[in-house]
Specification:
197 residues
């Protein structure tokens, strides 16, 4: 391995997760899940030298957007993915609903087979917050997650369109960014499984 292609660190994978989130955020909200291969920049430039003006050779890895995932269950779609050896890692961006911890008791008690009913209950809950979650992993096991909470007002409450004062409050609304590898352990494990030989 050339010195310029040093082994990516946990800091590097966190940076890649942020890069993927910023790329997806530029497209706005209400997007389907998006999958990215994390490829050594040197290998990508060797294969496609015309990209030299678009890629930073100082970055050991470059996220490469993949074709759209099939509609339906994300776990099933990930279970069918196998990466070629040149892919050092992968990342996924998906929009989710986040609820405060104390709300869990209010949700209907449903079986695993009725997950759609639970998703609808969460999506309809008045204290929900929409979010975009990016999870990224490397073959060596390093992992990172970044979550962007949509339109969180400075008070911590989600902005609800159509409520009194919403227009004035909209100017104060900002997206909050949270970074932690503990945000989505199951999703990270599913991504790691796509990298197994």
């Amino acid at each position: 391995m050339a010195p310029s292609e040093q082994q990516p660190t946990i800091t590097a994978i966190a940076g890649l997760a942020r890069e993927v989130e910023e790329f997806v955020a530029a497209g706005g909200w209400d997007q389907p899940p998006q999958l990215f291969a994390l490829v050594p920049t040197g290998a990508l430039l060797d294969e496609q030298p015309e990209l030299a003006g678009q890629l930073d050779p100082a970055n050991p890895l470059t996220p490469v957007a993949q074709e759209a995932l099939p509609e339906g269950d994300l776990a099933e779609a990930l279970g069918r993915i196998a990466w070629p050896d040149v892919v050092t890692g992968c990342a996924i961006a998906q929009e989710i609903i986040v609820l405060p911890p104390d709300v869990e008791a209010e949700l209907p008690d449903v079986s695993e087979g009725d997950a759609e009913r639970l998703r609808r209950a969460a999506a309809d809950h008045p204290r929900r917050t929409e979010a975009r979650l990016v999870a990224a992993v490397l073959r060596g096991g390093e992992a990172a997650c970044v979550m962007r909470l949509r339109g969180v007002a400075p008070s911590g409450e989600a902005a609800e369109p159509g409520t009194p004062g919403a227009a004035e409050a909209a100017e104060d609304v900002v997206d909050e960014i949270i970074e932690s590898p503990d945000l989505a352990p199951n999703l990270l494990e599913a991504l790691k499984a796509t990298l197994l030989p």
